[in-house]
Amino acid sequence: MAEFLPGAPVAERLTQDLKARSDALRQRGVVPTLAIIRVGRDPGGLAYEKGAASRCAKCGIDLRRIPLDDAASLPEVIRSVNDDPAIHGCLLLRPLADKAAEEAAGRLLSPDKDVDGMTPGSLAGLLTGRGGFAPCTAQACLELLDYYGVDPAGRRAVVIGRSLVVGQPAALLLQRRNATVTVCHTGTRHIPALSRDADIVIAAAGRPGLITVDCLRPGQTVLDVGVHPGPDGTLCGDVAAEAAGLDVALTPVPGGVGSVTSAVLCKHTIQAAENTRL
Ligand SMILES: Nc1nc(=O)c2c([nH]1)NC[C@@H]1CN(c3ccc(C(=O)N[C@@H](CCC(=O)O)C(=O)O)cc3)C=[N+]21
């Protein structure tokens, strides 16, 4: 049977540290503040905004919600966020229907306030190891490994999925922690053999049930990033439900990586507020 690795204790430990850091900032007259820009009403974005709002309240972070009907005013809103010293972090919920507007927003947002790690500046910092915030879900994977004492150093890791939001940042973060990383994607042959060979598997393909039991072996640590609404209204991940019967350490869906993501968003916001000089 699988040993489950819940996200709640990881988020809770992060929250305790962040609340203390927020109190220290407020004593210096700095109120850590996050702006969340939402264009439209995508269910995934609404779910994330709801989780982030709840986590911000626990961490002592003020939240500025900026709902927009469309992307027309996005450049002006991003500029006002960049110029507002009272706002330390900004999350633009993605994806936008208007890809060009999303890319333009990524070029406009100050990397210093890009707590979601979406801007070219942040991604360059991730690649070079010189500053910037990593995308929160990728960072959440490392927070889970650290909390549960799984040291990536010297281990073989397979990341399934090569998005700029999760797969590639997670691979870079694992490499920086001295893991040997293989990134699998739609062009990869023999994913099951490659995946079975790894000590750590990060499933971030965005395809429900893609990682079947023949991709896994006893003793592995498996982080399931997928969050997919199932036909019966429940949520499922990229890892097939049958994996629960294997002798692996597995993050549940819901209650796994997703529940740590918003805590990492808060961690980046507090860090951004601490980076400001009074
Ligand atoms: N710039 C940007 N960055 C994102 O990281 C981003 C985004 N836009 N747009 C929306 C998606 C979706 N997303 C989720 C994160 C956590 C949960 C989460 O906490 N899920 C809970 C379950 C929530 C529920 O029960 O509905 C869990 O997995 O335990 C869900 C969805 C981040 N996203």
UniProtKB/TrEMBL annotation:
Q: Does the keyword Metal-binding apply?
A: no
Tetrahydrofolate dehydrogenase/cyclohydrolase NAD(P)-binding domain segment(s): 135-275
Keyword Amino-acid biosynthesis belongs to the record: yes
Report the pathway entry: One-carbon metabolism; tetrahydrofolate interconversion
What Gene Ontology cellular-component terms does the record carry? cytosol
Q: What is its EC number?
A: 1.5.1.5, 3.5.4.9
**Which InterPro entries does the protein's record reference?**
Aminoacid_DH-like_N_sf, NAD(P)-bd_dom_sf, THF_DH/CycHdrlase, THF_DH/CycHdrlase_cat_dom, THF_DH/CycHdrlase_NAD-bd_dom
Instruction: Please name the GO terms of the biological process aspect recorded for this protein, alphabetically.
Output: L-histidine biosynthetic process; methionine biosynthetic process; purine nucleotide biosynthetic process; tetrahydrofolate interconversion
Listed binding positions for NADP(+) are G161, R162, S163, V227
Instruction: Describe its partners and assembly state.
Output: Homodimer.
Q: Which family does it belong to?
A: Belongs to the tetrahydrofolate dehydrogenase/cyclohydrolase family.
PANTHER family assigned: C-1-TETRAHYDROFOLATE SYNTHASE, CYTOPLASMIC, C-1-TETRAHYDROFOLATE SYNTHASE, CYTOPLASMIC-RELATED
Protein name as annotated: Bifunctional protein FolD
What's the source species for this entry? Answer: Brotocaccenecus cirricatena
